[in-house]
Design goal:
The model has no long low-confidence stretch (mean pLDDT 93). This protein has a domain of 139 residues. It starts with a helix and ends with a helix. α3 runs antiparallel to α4 and α4 runs antiparallel to α5. The protein is globular, with a radius of gyration of 20 Å. By secondary structure, it is mainly α.
């Protein structure tokens, strides 16, 4: 066996196999994707600076429908709507590159139309396209499948909202303002929703966790409780609260405002994207 064959076998084992078979992640591809994410954040930052786009609440609100569009598109793939090799485009992590390409293309078009005087506000055009795409995906999802788990899906929303409210209430009572701002509480809700989808899916419906770090802690919690997925709630808080704290209090908002906004958007995507996908999968029983 030559060096080329050896390299190819490792690439297939650690990267391609997981995509083709849609299986769990491994430490190698997890670390690789984390590094790529970090590099991508700075690449996107440069792109947004070139387009002279402010990463504010209006921008984050207009880009959120694309998160929903990507998650619903992923569930369409879970529902076997697409056949190989097309389906591989809609499997993580490739779907993130696909969604990024489409999102940036529509964003550039919207900005161009605004600057040419064709539209008044690019946020409206950009957000409306994402909403329309999401509605189309959901319509297709309900055409090809049936609602099978309405109660568990509802429970996810209730648990996500309730856990968010509890953290918000404790934060307000204790004067911990970090988790009382609108954007930060939205990020909190996205991650509590993700934790809730993992809890309901794994502990009650037989789904499994694909990611390496959550799997480690869930297996660890399994030694002391019959509902090990509950560990996702404190795990989420322990991870993202320090990050939000650093972004809000350790960065210079005047010189690094765009980076802060982009980092918060990234954290929102990392919570909301799997949360919506998991909830829709459970709803449709796929």
């Amino acid at each position: 066996m030559n060096i080329t064959d050896t390299i190819w076998q490792h690439i297939y084992k650690y990267y391609i196999s997981g995509i083709v078979n849609d299986t769990s992640y491994n430490p190698v591809d997890t670390l690789t994707y984390a590094v790529l994410l970090g590099i991508s954040v700075f690449g996107v930052l440069k792109l947004l600076e070139k387009l002279d786009i402010q990463i504010d609440t209006a921008f984050i609100a207009s880009v959120t429908p694309y998160i929903l569009a990507g998650s619903s598109l992923r569930v369409l793939e879970d529902s076997n709507v697409f056949a190989p090799p097309l389906k591989y485009i809609f499997i993580t992590p490739i779907i993130y590159f696909f969604m990024f390409a489409v999102t940036v293309s529509v964003l550039a078009l919207a900005v161009t139309l605004e600057r040419n005087g064709k539209i008044k506000d690019y946020h409206v055009f950009f957000g409306a396209f994402g909403i329309a795409w999401t509605v189309f995906n959901l319509a297709m999802l309900f055409v090809v499948g049936d609602v099978k788990n309405a109660m568990p899906a509802t429970a996810i929303l209730v648990f996500g909202a309730l856990s968010t409210y509890i953290v918000y209430l404790v934060s307000r009572k204790t004067g911990f303002s970090l988790l009382t701002s609108k954007l930060n509480i939205s990020i909190l809700f996205a991650h509590m929703l993700d934790a809730s989808s993992t809890f309901v899916g794994m502990d009650f419906l037989g789904y499994y966790e694909k990611h390496v770090v959550p799997t480690f802690f869930i297996n660890l919690a399994g030694n002391v409780t019959d509902h090990p997925s509950l560990v996702m709630y404190p795990l989420k808080l322990l991870i993202f609260i320090p990050v939000l704290y650093m972004l809000d209090y350790k960065f210079d908002h005047k010189t690094e405002g765009k980076l802060i906004g982009l980092m918060k958007l990234t954290i929102l995507v990392l919570g909301l994207s799997p949360a919506i996908r998991n909830t829709l999968r459970i709803l449709m029983g796929v």
